[in-house]
Amino acid sequence: MERRQVSAGHEHSRAPVSFSGAFAVGIGLNIAFVAIEAFYGWKVNSLALLADAGHNLSDVAGLGLAWAAAMAVRLAPDNRHTYGWRRASILAAFANAILLLVAMGSLAWEAVHRLGVPTQTQGLTIILVAAVGVVVNGITAALFMSGRSSDLNIRGAFLHMAADALVSLGVVGAGALYLWTRWDWLDPVASLAIAAVIVVGTWQLFRQSLHLMFDGVPDSVDLTAVQTDLLSQTGVEEVHDLHVWAMSTTDIALSAHLVMPGGYPGQAFIDTVADTLNERFNISHPTIQIETARKDCGCAPPEAPPAT
User: Fold this and answer.
1) Class of domain 5-13+217-291
2) Which residue from 66, 90, 244, 278 has the fewest beta carbons nearer than 10 Å?
3) Positions of the chain with pLDDT lower than 70, given as ranges
4) Domain spanning 20-213: CATH superfamily
């Protein structure tokens, strides 16, 4: 039986939006605030302030990682890296999540220790310094707000800063409550609350970035819907060896074999399929192989969902 196979790729790549200015301003603001917060945390013996300073320092490192990844994504492909360095954004998101989880584990450990030996602190100083943190972190979060829904790397930076603003607001509340009650255990309890809030907010980032690192189908893509869409194209009898994965935190790739017994449909068909995948599923790098008869390429198909 004669078989004609033609592979075709169609790309709708858009230059990623640059957030270099946002990263530069955010890192500068946070370095200055970390110095202020750490100094006053040490001066008034506040674990909540020192903890928040440590967390903000990890965010400076996280912003640096995210910035480096955002710049790496813009590097052109070459003969050794045919996709360029796009995956750096996924690695940066994962590294940011790990950095935060480790920092919060250390914070929780110290807070539990402090609960056994509570110490006095200065509520007014805590309130004033944490209030500055609300402003600094709120401004920094706003710089990344526009990219939070389309780029997991930028979303990681946004979540860090938004969480910091909320945490600093919580520290303000703890300081105010301390002025009223003089309960020495409030400071470590506030620190534990900070850790819990950040871990909850970070877990989703960790899960998603780990999933993408192992070429998982992005959460925004319904693989069944993609397969159904391809099968609905005129002349397509079967779809097999369908794979969808993330090249970066913004670029999604697909490869698929379409069995079309009627013969090769022409470039216009390939362009139409590529346009449809881009518009409906944000898949910007599809590679479609046309087969006039079924051929097993040795690729395992996606596992079917369990029967309900």
Assistant:
1) alpha beta
2) 278
3) 1-18, 47-48, 51-52, 55, 117-123, 147-150, 184, 294-308
4) Cation efflux protein transmembrane domain (1.20.1510.10)
Q: What angle do CA 264, 269, 270 make, to 5 degrees?
A: 90
User: Could you state, in order of their start, the residue ranges of all structural domains in the chain?
Assistant: 5-13+217-291, 20-213
Instruction: Report the C-alpha gap between 3 and 173 in whole angstroms.
Output: 72
Q: Are 150 and 250 in contact (CB under 8 A)?
A: yes
CA distances from 94 to 59, 69, 101, 206 (A): 13, 11, 11, 6
Q: For residues 52 and 67, what is the distance between their CA atoms, to the nearest angstrom? A: 22
Provide DSSP, 123-146: HHHHHHHHHHHHHHHHHHHHHTGG
Helices (H), 182-299: 186-213, 223-231, 267-281
Tallying the residues shown for the chain, one arrives at 308
Distance between alpha carbon 183 and the CA centroid of its chain, in Å?
Answer: 38
pLDDT digits (tens, 9 = 90+) for 185-222: 777 787 787 778 778 877 888 888 899 889 899 888 99
pLDDT digits (tens, 9 = 90+) for 71-120: 777 777 778 887 778 788 788 888 878 877 887 787 788 778 777 766 55
**Distance (Å, whole) CA 96 – CA 209:** 10
Model pTM score: 0.68
User: Do 129 and 37 contact (CB within 8 A), yes or no?
Assistant: yes
Q: Using an 8 Å Cβ cutoff, are 235 and 260 in contact?
A: yes
